[in-house]
Amino acid sequence: MPDNLHPLVYRFIEDAGNTTQSFGVGRVIGQIYAFLYFSPSPETLDGMRDGLGISKGSASIAVRQLEQWGAVQKVWVKGDRKDYYTAKDAFGKIIKNAILEMVGKKMGDYESLLAEAREQLESGAIEDDADRIAFMQERLEHLQKFQRWSHQLWNSPMLQTLLK
Amino acid sequence: MPDNLHPLVYRFIEDAGNTTQSFGVGRVIGQIYAFLYFSPSPETLDGMRDGLGISKGSASIAVRQLEQWGAVQKVWVKGDRKDYYTAKDAFGKIIKNAILEMVGKKMGDYESLLAEAREQLESGAIEDDADRIAFMQERLEHLQKFQRWSHQLWNSPMLQTLLK
DNA sequence: TGTTATGTTAAATACATACTGAACGTTTTG
DNA sequence: CAAAACGTTCAGTATGTATTTAACATAACA
Predict the structure, then answer these.
(1) DSSP A128
(2) How many beta carbons lie within 10 A of that of residue A158, not counting itself?
(3) Which of B24, B135, B142 sits opposite A40 (nearest CB)?
(4) What is the pLDDT of residues A51-86, one digit of tens each?
């Protein structure tokens, strides 16, 4: 443990790193966010490097991702041309943005694949026996139903409010 | 592409595999689920191996995980002692179970860490200047507020209904 | 203008872990 | 009871990708 770090803070950083890592987002992201969250004043890339024992390149990349999720914010410190960052603490919004980025694109992909599949099936481009075609159509319809359902759930006023 | 597979089914299998992989859950899980979802009749481990070009060991492990999430179901086929599986299609429930397993444990961990942290801080076990301690307390309180909030959100009747 | 400070990028590396293959225990079959 | 059929497990390997390193571009400085 770096000796310049509050022992409690260190444990939160460890946990956060493990969490983000287990979600396939990389360990540094969680570490940096926790580090900033428990920093009384803004920190620079070099500060993160020294505080966490990571490379500056890692810090640069991770901070950009966090910025995209609205999890951290660049702040301007007069008299210093380094970039300073602080953690934003609107967890709901952050989670929403992260989810949106991770599943949003895939949702669109499935939508088009689904549309294409139904088209091919109806146009008779796929030759198969009637039973098989009927089964496929049933599955595709069920998928489309779920797709519509998830859209509605995501856009429901309640969820939008809660993830504000 | 294995030639015994419907071309459309193959594309869904690919997509599903990519999705689960990007979520850090492994590619085979998505592949098997899609394979079963588009199979008119139950399939065995050997069927998955042949249909997807994976090892039987992989299939065994992945199927167990899927079973734990309630995503697949063992079915009994008379006259055959192989284990047969079908895909269950209650997506909401499946997602709920998966999330529960993935974040549930971590939630508990944070809860205890949080409690321990507050305890240490209040008992004066950590020596630090007053400003620093006040800041830490504020952060810990904010975390605890979020923890309570997420509990409520997760247990809200609305969400419970939607993820049924 | 040359020099230093800073953030970014791309190639190389390291790392975590998903997956394979073979061996094992169990159950069925003949 | 022997032999085959299954499912499972675990050590080893392969694979994807997170992270580092070093070179680069840009902007401030003196």
Answers:
(1) -
(2) 13
(3) B135
(4) 999 999 999 999 999 999 999 999 999 999 999 999
**Who's near B132: CB < 8 A, 6+ residues apart?**
A6, A40
Residue–nucleotide distance: A58 CA to D17 C1' (Å): 13
Half-sphere exposure of A145 (CA within 13 A, CB side): 10
Tokens in use for A30?
């969680």
Whether the CB of A48 is less than 7 Å away from nucleic strand C comes out as no
Give CA separation, A71 vs A34, A92, B55, in Å. Answer: 11, 10, 41
Residue matched to tokens 């419970």: B160
A8, two tokens? 């409690």
Nucleic strand D within 7 A of Cβ B68: no
CB contacts < 8 A, A to B, total 71
- Smallest Cα–Cα separation from B99: which of B72, B69, B65, B71? B69
CB A6 within 8 A of CB B136: yes
B23/A102 touch (CB, cutoff 8 Å), yes or no = yes
Contact between A106 and B38 using a beta-carbon 8 Å cutoff: no
What positions of strand D are covered by protein, i.e. any atom < 7 Å from a CB? 5-10, 16-22, 27-29
pLDDT in tens, B43-63: 999 999 999 999 999 999 999
Q: Name the CATH code of domain B7-87 (choices 3.40.50.11890, 1.10.490.10, 1.10.10.10, 1.10.287.3510).
A: 1.10.10.10
**Domain limits of chain B?**
7-87, 91-162
How far apart are the CA of B74 and the nearest CA of chain A, in angstroms?
Answer: 20
| Coil, strand or helix at A158 | helix
For residue range A91-101, what is the model confidence (pLDDT) as tens digits?
999 999 999 99
